[in-house]
Model the fold of this input.
Amino acid sequence: MYQVQQRKKFLFIGGCMILLFLFLIIFFVLIFLRSPEREAVQVVEEFYDFEQEGIFAESWELFHPYMQEKFSKGHYIQDRAHVFMNHFDVVSFSYSIGEVEKVENWTMEESREPIDLVYKMTIYQEYNGKYGKMTIMQDVYVTQVEEEWKIMWDYSS
Done:
């Protein structure tokens, strides 16, 4: 009888420890996956996935309002398709994302107020077109606007 109780107690404690361990793993995974840096990278991936597919209307929607002021939606769609697909004769491209850097008080252009916090990452776009292989490197900045992550490019001097 004593051994049965000991075994039940051991199984109960062991089960609780396993559940606690699993809970801690899930908790840390969720925190890591929901980090601001990770969310910033995810919106950049989404942006360039749309660009790869030629869905420029959707990529334009991911721009910060300051960027949307720079290009009307129609102008952006037409210009991106014209430059990359028509002039460079590019059918597709690949991209990679460099390290993520947290930047405080960043300004998109000198006429704008600084943004408290942005995440900067360098994007490398690799094109194969009629002019051969090309790589375009561009710094991209991401910040939250009304709880949504939005993309900006640097226009400061």
In short: The chain has five helices and four strands. The two ends are 82 Å apart (CA to CA). Residues 47 and 59 are 5 Å apart (CA to CA). The first strand starts at residue 93 and ends at 106.
